[in-house]
Each structure stands twice: as C-alpha cells, then as structure tokens.
Design a protein that fits this description.
The complex is a heterodimer. By secondary structure, chain A is of the alpha+beta class. Chain A contains 5 helices and 16 strands. In chain A, the strands form 4 sheets. In chain A, strands 8, 9, 10, 11, 12 and 13 form a 6-stranded antiparallel sheet that branches. A 4-stranded mixed sheet of chain A has the order 1-6-7-3, with no helix packed on it. In chain A, helix 3 packs antiparallel against helix 4. By secondary structure, chain B is α+β, with helices and mostly antiparallel strands. Chain B is globular. Chains A and B meet through strand 1 of A and strand 3 and helix 4 of B.
C-alpha cells in the first residue's frame, strides 16, 4: 500500500474500498472522505483522520481539567473548554448524605477553582456529566494552567506517554493533562516549572515536526546547564 | 461623443474584456487561512479588487437560548460591508441586500457543514467586506468555507464559489463590477468540487437554455480554480510547504 499517512483537508478522498470509517471521515458510496484538516491513517480494515484543529468534544471516560463557573444548590457548572458546560453533581463531592439545606457548595469548590474530573456520561441530548470520585481526581490546589490546542493533546502524551514522561523526569514537575487541552503543571522548583511549561508550549506549536522529542529534550537539557 | 466618457467596451474583437482578461480567465485570487488570533477560525481573500476577511466562532453556546435546536447545531452568517468598502460611504446598518446575501451564503454552506454532530450549539460566521468590486458573495463564500475548515468544523466538502455571466452575447467567467453593471447576465455559483454538487445558484439576467448550460459549466470551472487555491491556503497553514509524508 502506498502512503499510509496523508495530509488531508475536508472533502479529500482518502481511499475507496471496504474500509470501516472511523474518526473524522464519512463514507460516500465506496469512497472515504475526510471531514477535517488532519493526517489520515489507513489501518488493516479502518480509516481515520487525526485532526489538526477544532474544539474539544467530550468523550465518556476522558480526563478533563475544568474551571468552576457557577453552582446551583445541587450542582456545579464547569468550563471544560468545549462547546458544552460540564455538570458536576454535589452528591459526587459530598457523598450520598448530601443535603441541599445543610451543605454549602462553596465550602468545597468556589468559582474559579480548577478541578480534575472524568466524563461520566455524555450524549447528544444532555450536557456532559462529570465525576471526581476516582483516584487522582478532585480539586487542584496548586499548579499553573497551560492551555494548548485540544488536537495536540495526543502529541503531548505521545506513544505510551513517552513525551510527558520525558518532560516530567527532566524537570521534576507533576503534570496533569486534560483531554480538553488544559494542562496543569506543578513543581516545587520554579525553574523546572518554567521549563516544563515551555516544553508543553513547544509541543503545542510544533506538533507536526518529526523529531520533536529530540528538540524537547535538547531544550530541557540546554537550559539546565545555564 | 462630446463631454461624456467614451462608452465602455466590454469585449473587444480579440476576445479581450474591459480589464484585459480573456473570456474564461478569472481575476487574480489570493486566499490565506488563519490570521485572526481571537477567532476559532479565519480566512482572508483577495478576489481581484475585492478584499474580504472572515472570522468563525464555534461550535459554542447559543444566545439567545430559544434559537438553539436540540437536534442539530445552527449556522449563523453575517455578511457585512464596511462603510469604506465602496466609493460612496455605505451606511453600516445591515441593508436589504446584506441580509439577503447573509441568507444565501448560509444556505450555500449548510449542505457542507455537519452540524448534526453538535446539537444545541451555534457556529457563527462573520464576513467583513473591506473592499468591494463585484462578486463579493462568491469571494465571501469561498473565504467562509476556508475559515470553517480552519476552525475545525467537520465538513463533507469545501465550498468554492465563482460567478459566470454574459456580456456582449458571450458567456464569460468571473464577472467584475463593470460587467455586472453593464452586462446582460450574472450567475454566482457555489460548488462542492469533490461531491460535484451545486450549493448556490443565482441568476440575474436572461439566458437561453443553451447559454444557461454553458454558463453553469463555465462557473463550475471557475469554482475548481478557486478550490485549488483554497486547498493551497489550508495546506500552507497546516502542513507548511510540503504535502508529503
């Protein structure tokens, strides 16, 4: 098969034949057409396009970073950098014995707070339901928020997390990546924090470059000598 | 002819038009994707002397809420001409003509965008005509489609647009301002080149059935030229110079 990966724009015919259309492609007759700007990948039986642009669309089980916008007496509303607002029920935070009279929601989460949450449920009829009842989820007390394009998140994680591990090891920072493009970096050492943030921004800007990992390592090391 | 300016020759005996083009030659077109930092997607087009800037936002929350649709996202388009875009100052308030063009452009983009993936949201397209010289709706539609792709809105195909028309009893491609004023017919066409579908077709003037067919054909050829430039603009922004890998 010639060229497995290809740059495509909307309307480009990727291939034709008995393939299963996956992300960002549509089937028209027997032609498979890209619906977005990205890189097309053909596998044994399926075709998909990795997008290079676009907003975050919630997916069940995604880890996201949310910012509290407001709350009602029963739930919080979180900005999750998407076209929908995330919805975090109070019971999830206070536990089963939550009482709308007795408990004050602002005592746990105030507007502006950052929260690491998982998308518990989402479909086209309702806004995404979030949950924090899992390990490593919940309010984020310290760290800096870095915003990157959601379509670059897979590049930041890289194959089995190699890129993010490289950055974490070199700077001693703890990095939480939300699938929605929001990344929280915390590090005791201010220099490490700066370097980690710079590395993340580098990935965002140069995601399409082939030897990006080497460039990031070079940047991380060069600064360390200074 | 005394004091009056000499009559405009729309097409001379050598088949050269009033601005020096051949009958099947479009004006100079330049398209650039991106450029606006605060918009989710943007594009700039120069189509002859037309200069148009397009910004796209969304998918995002719908305000006012009652406009939202639980089955699908909605597309909203605003076509607006700057007061300085024409020789005589134009009132910046939306005119009858601008409202109509907003509607036609919206309806020409709708078959391409897949908004059913984003129920209860809106995609807003803002088109600002900085300088107008005939054929702005086609140029605006072409730029809007690039801006939508830049914003990452899923689309079945790009929409390319170009006008065809009739001057001096001849079918010509890409009608300019003079030809529009003095010509016999003007036909803007919006076209999805890969799906081979027409999304916009208007006609101002009278054509015989044969001329009509020729006119549509000519217009579609123009759309294909525009499409190549749209493609180039997006490739330049996203893939650098090369389309290899």
């Amino acid at each position: 098969m010639e060229n497995k990966r290809k740059y495509v724009i909307p309307g480009d015919v990727i291939t034709s034949g008995p393939y299963r259309p996956e992300q960002n492609v549509v089937l028209d007759g027997n032609k498979i057409i890209s619906t977005t700007i990205g890189i097309s990948e053909i596998y044994d039986d399926s075709v998909k396009v990795i997008p290079l642009t676009g907003k975050y669309i919630p997916k069940i089980n995604d880890l996201v970073i949310g910012k509290v916008i407001s709350h009602s007496s029963l739930s919080w509303e979180l900005d999750i950098n998407s076209c929908y607002v995330g919805f975090l029920p109070a019971q999830d935070v206070f536990g089963r014995d939550f009482s709308a009279h007795a408990d004050d929601l602002t005592s746990k989460l105030k507007s502006g707070d950052l929260v690491a949450a998982r998308i518990a449920n989402f479909d086209r009829t309702r806004d995404p339901l979030l949950t924090i009842s899992d390990r490593d989820l919940g309010k984020i007390d310290s760290g800096d928020l870095v915003e990157i394009s959601p379509s670059k998140v897979p590049r930041l994680i890289d194959k089995r997390g190699t890129m993010i591990q490289t950055i974490e090891m070199a700077t001693n920072a703890a990095i939480t990546i939300g699938q929605n493009g929001w990344v929280v970096v915390s590090c005791d050492n201010p220099e490490g924090l700066l370097k980690a943030k710079k590395a993340i921004q580098m990935v965002d800007e140069r995601a399409h470059i082939a030897n990006l990992t080497d460039q990031v390592i070079e940047m991380l090391e060069s600064k360390g000598e200074m | 002819m005394g004091g009056r300016e000499s009559e405009l020759v729309l097409l001379d005996e050598n088949g050269i038009r009033c601005d020096g083009r051949k009958i099947d030659e479009p004006r100079k077109i330049m398209i650039r994707a991106g450029g606006l930092k605060n918009a989710d997607g943007s594009a700039y087009i120069e189509f002859g002397d037309n200069k148009i800037l397009v910004g796209v936002f969304g998918p995002r929350d719908v305000h006012p809420k009652h406009m939202s649709n639980t089955d699908t996202g909605i597309l909203r388009v605003r076509y607006h001409m700057e007061p300085f875009s024409v020789t005589e100052r134009k009132n910046p308030a939306p005119s009858r003509r601008e409202i109509e063009i907003s509607k036609v452009i919206k309806e020409a983009l709708e078959p391409a965008v897949m908004l059913e993936k984003f129920p209860r949201t809106a995609v807003d397209v803002f088109i600002e005509v900085l300088q107008a010289d005939g054929g702005t709706r086609c140029a605006a539609l072409s730029a809007a489609s690039v801006a939508l792709a830049d914003a990452g809105i899923p689309m079945r195909d790009m929409v390319a647009a170009c006008a065809a028309g009739k001057v001096a009893d001849t079918i010509i491609l890409d009608v300019n301002n003079e030809e529009d004023q003095a010509g016999q017919a003007d036909m803007p066409i919006g076209y999805m080149p890969n799906l081979k579908k027409i999304t916009l077709l208007q006609l101002d003037g009278v054509l015989t059935p044969e001329e009509y067919k020729k006119c549509v054909e000519t217009g579609i050829n123009g759309c294909k030229i525009v499409y190549d430039l749209q493609k180039k603009a997006l490739q330049e922004k996203y893939f650098g110079s090369g389309g290899d890998q």
